[in-house]
Structures are given as C-alpha cells and as structure tokens.
Design brief:
Belongs to the adenylate kinase family. The protein is an alpha/beta fold and about 230 residues long. The protein contains 9 helices and 8 strands. α6 packs across α7. The protein is globular and about 45 Å long. The structure holds BIS(adenosine)-5'-pentaphosphate.
Length: about 230
C-alpha cells in the first residue's frame, strides 16, 4: 500500500510577515495543525507554569527563548497524535541550532521536512502591520485595524471574543525583534537553500493572493516529487 502523504512545512519570515495568518488558512485547507512556538510560549506564560516564568522575560522583550527550552516545548507538541499526518511550524526554527536539532529529531522518527517557505516583507512595512495587529483572546484569530479590520471594532468576527494588542507589539520591542530576526533567523534561508527545500514568497499584497502563492508551492511539491511529502 502506498505510504500516506505527509506535509511537514516550515513557515518562516520576520515578525509580522504573515506566518500566523497564512498558517491558519493552511490548517483549514490541508487539515494539518499549526504549531506556533510563540503561541505555545504565550500559553505557558498565561498558565503561570514554571516554563512560563522562565520564558516570560524573553518573550516580552522580544529576545529569543534559549534553544533548549523551546526545543522541549516543540518536540513534546510534535509527538502528539494530530501531527502524524503533517504539521506547519510557525516561528520555529529560529536559529541554526534549532534547525539542526529539528533535523535530528525528525530523522530519529524517520521523518523529514517537505518544504521551508519564507514570506519576504521589508522591515518598513512590518512596523505598521505589527502595531496595528489585534488578536482574539478566545480563538487567537488575528486582525489588523487597517488591513483586515473586524466588522465591529474590538470584537472577533469569528467567535465574538475581545481583540487585544500583544505586549511585544510596541515600536521599541518590534525594533528589537527585527534585529534578532536579521541576526539569528534570516541565516536559515541560506541553510534551507543548501538543503534544497527553501521557497521564497513575496509577502506584500493581499492575504488571499499570498495564500494562493503558498498553495501553488505546496501543490508543486505534490506534483513534482511526491516523495518529498511522504514519510
Ligand atoms: P511569535 O509569536 O512567533 O512572533 P513573530 O515571529 O515575531 O511573528 P508574529 O506572530 O509577530 O508575526 P506573523 O508573521 O505571525 O504575522 P501575522 O500573521 O500575525 O514569537 C514571539 C516571541 O516568542 C519571540 O519574540 C520569542 O521571544 C519567542 N519565540 C517564539 N518562537 C521561538 C523560537 N523558535 N525560539 C526562541 N524564541 C521563540 O500578521 C501580522 C499582522 O499583519 C496581522 O495584523 C495581520 O492581520 C497583518 N497581515 C498579515 N498579512 C498581511 C498582508 N499580506 N498585508 C497586510 N497585512 C497583513
């Protein structure tokens, strides 16, 4: 019997590039879970857990949480049943160390990444995107006061929850997050280019148009080399 197709994706890009927005749309289309390390870390902080207290200062200041802590969280999540048929990594890996650890962990499970997709957006656009972002406290849907406003101000279209601004979406913290991205995460584009799984997508334009480009990449993987999406 042919092996079951598996789609293991990395969505990369600077803060505010649209990783979370696109990942949620991919979840609906492909039925595989979004694994956002940022969401997992914020949930740990909100729960008041020991992990949450260890990571809080990094997340609120826009620095990177130490690799070992993030890896624990990520690998635990990847071992859950809903990841068996694929997953979308949103915000992981962010350092070469994380990428190497991910590669080793997948190899040990006889798995591999299907593709890394980087959403490319210039820094100048990102500040406006992030300062205008509002997140639903109940269902985590993301809106923008100008680019994708909710029908009713401050209220989530999908579940009626309250829309709030993230603590790290201030101009000062955004500027630090961008510095960290350029110094530590952007080099992963070359890392995955060397491994021949990197795809760049222009992240300026309408959300649906960008989604179409990402889906075209995924469909080309299926068409050109089904082994790449097969465990
Ligand atoms: P994380 O939560 O991952 O934040 P991030 O990478 O900074 O990314 P964002 O969530 O801010 O942006 P996004 O690309 O998802 O954009 P979105 O779709 O929301 O990480 C937060 C922190 O956690 C880190 O700083 C770090 O401390 C820690 N952390 C997480 N992972 C870690 C790791 N692996 N290692 C160590 N530390 C880690 O869109 C942004 C806005 O723009 C929205 O309002 C949206 O509506 C709008 N928008 C989206 N697309 C468009 C478009 N095409 N045009 C106009 N507006 C758009």
């Amino acid at each position: 019997m042919a092996p079951k197709p598996v789609l293991n994706l990395i969505l990369m890009g600077p803060p505010g590039a649209g990783k979370g927005t696109q990942a949620k749309m991919l979840v609906e289309k492909y039925g595989i879970p979004q694994i956002s390390t940022g969401d997992l870390l914020r949930a740990a902080i909100a729960s008041g857990s020991e992990l949450g207290s260890k990571v809080q200062s990094y997340v609120t200041s826009g620095g990177l949480v130490p690799d070992a802590l993030v890896l624990d969280v990520l690998l635990q999540r990847l071992s859950e049943k809903d990841c068996q048929n694929g997953f979308i990594l949103d915000g992981f890996p962010r350092t070469v160390g994380q990428a190497e650890a991910l590669g080793q962990a997948l190899e040990a499970r006889k798995m591999r990444m299907s593709a890394a997709i980087a959403i490319v957006v210039a820094d100048a656009e990102l500040l406006e995107r992030l300062t205008g972002r509002r997140i639903c406290q109940s269902c985590a849907s993301s809106f923008h006061i100008k680019f994708s406003p909710p029908r009713q101000e401050g209220i989530c279209d999908r579940c009626g929850g309250a829309l709030l601004q993230r603590k790290d979406d201030t101009a000062e913290v955004i500027s630090h997050r961008l510095e960290v991205y350029h110094a530590q995460t952007k080099p992963l584009i070359a890392y995955y280019q060397e491994r021949k799984i990197m795809h760049l997508v222009d992240g300026i334009g309408q959300i649906d148009v960008i989604f179409g480009k990402i889906c075209a990449i995924i469909e080309s993987l299926r068409g050109l080399d089904s082994a790449q999406i097969t465990r």
